[in-house]
Specification:
By secondary structure, the chain is α+β, with helices and mostly antiparallel strands. It has one domain: CBS-domain, CATH 3.10.580. Helix content is 34%, strand content 15%. A two-stranded antiparallel sheet has the order 1-2. It has a two-stranded antiparallel ribbon with strand order 3-4. α5 packs antiparallel against α6. The longest helix has 12 residues. The two termini are 42 Å apart.
């Protein structure tokens, strides 16, 4: 006669409540934003002042129209200031920003967002609701969320 595995009656109170950790719980809502007609010199000074690597570009209705980053500013510097060229009309955010912007949903699980960071190699994702910019999720925000999560095997 074989031995049967018996685990006993399951107690309903032992089931774990799996709480979703959402992008909206960790996204930054107080953002440094830029306008398309801002100069790159203004952008550079704001990036340095606030110790950020880029920011969303919005129109007057707070709708996202692009992203400007340190890399975009460096491209402009390498093309003009390096050769001691005077500032020209191309010295605006609108002429140097990236307009093909990936966004992220505020109701996405934070760890699904982490995977999106890995697969896209982006440093930040704007969060849009009803066409308006409501926040931004950075890789650092994902790291903050990971520190707060306590799993079964975590101490």
């Amino acid at each position: 006669m074989g031995i049967k595995s018996f685990q006993g009656k399951r107690d309903a109170t032992q089931t774990k409540n799996i709480e979703r950790i959402l992008v909206s719980d960790y996204m930054t809502t107080k953002l440094v934003t830029f306008k398309a007609d801002d100069s790159l010199d203004h952008v550079i000074s704001q990036l340095i002042k606030y110790k950020i690597s880029g920011g969303p570009v919005v129109n007057d209705n707070n709708e996202l129209i692009g992203i400007i980053s340190e890399t975009d500013c460096i491209k402009h510097i390498s093309e003009s200031k390096y050769y001691n060229m005077p500032s020209d009309r191309n010295n605006t955010v609108g002429n140097n920003m990236v307009t093909d912007v990936d966004t992220i949903d505020k109701d996405m699980n934070i760890f699904d967002a982490a995977f999106k960071f890995l697969s896209s190699r982006r440093r930040r994702f704007p969060v849009i609701e009803s066409g308006k910019l409501i926040g931004q999720l950075s890789q650092k925000d994902v790291l903050k969320a990971a520190l707060k999560v306590k799993g079964n095997t975590w101490k």
